[in-house]
Design goal:
three-stranded antiparallel beta sheet; alpha+beta; 5 helices; five-stranded antiparallel beta sheet
Length: 202
């Protein structure tokens, strides 16, 4: 444990003891600031002897400092824009929403994560969104107009765009979505079209 700072060593020992007592493989995020701030993702599993007793630990450690820094920059940026922002996998299961999403929809975290967020999308627009989420096309999806339910119960028009998030092999693993409210503009355009059609029959 000499590689780690005193605080990090104490926490790592707690993790190691947890694996020993549970006899299960576990994943932890561990910090070390002895040689500069570092964050590690650690998998630790028990090594059992012939009697089924834990004789030691096996582990895999990955430095995720840069990844966590990128995630933090993304969260800071997404929390400052006046748009609804979220990330979903190819099956439509969401794992992140910015604060504006919660303020607009009035939904809690529990009522937004995984597939629960779909309750905020108008049923006539949901199918089109789902079909796009499952696509692995390597181009940016064109914007589409969708209706999202406000916390007051009304549906308002938004311009929805998405971009791919890829892994190291350039495979699409999830989508970053953003929705900008265009309700007033949309309703004004509909009114203009209605008046134009009405004028054409007079």
């Amino acid at each position: 444990y000499s590689f780690f700072s005193p605080d990090a060593s104490r926490k790592i020992k707690e993790h190691d003891n947890l694996v020993f007592t549970s006899k299960k493989g576990l994943v932890f995020e561990e910090f070390n600031n002895k040689y500069g701030p570092k964050i590690y993702s650690s998998y630790k599993g028990p090594f059992l002897n012939s009697n089924g007793e834990v004789a030691g630990l096996v582990g895999i450690v990955r430095d995720i400092t840069e990844l966590k820094s990128s995630e933090e920059r993304f969260r800071i940026l997404s929390e400052t824009v006046p748009q609804l922002v979220w990330t979903v996998d190819l099956n439509g299961s969401a794992d992140y929403f910015n604060k504006y999403w919660y303020d607009y929809t009035g939904l809690s975290l529990e009522n937004s994560y995984e597939s629960a967020w779909k309750s905020a999308v108008h049923e006539e627009d949901l199918w089109a969104m789902d079909s796009k989420l499952q696509s692995k096309e390597n181009i940016k999806s064109p914007p589409m107009e969708i209706r999202l339910k406000h916390k007051d119960g009304t549906y308002r028009w938004h311009l929805y765009t998405r971009v791919a998030i890829r892994n190291s092999n350039a495979d699409v693993i999830k989508w970053l979505g953003a929705a900008t409210e265009i309700d007033e503009h949309k309703r004004a355009a509909d009114t203009q079209l209605f008046l134009a059609n009405l004028a054409s029959v007079l």
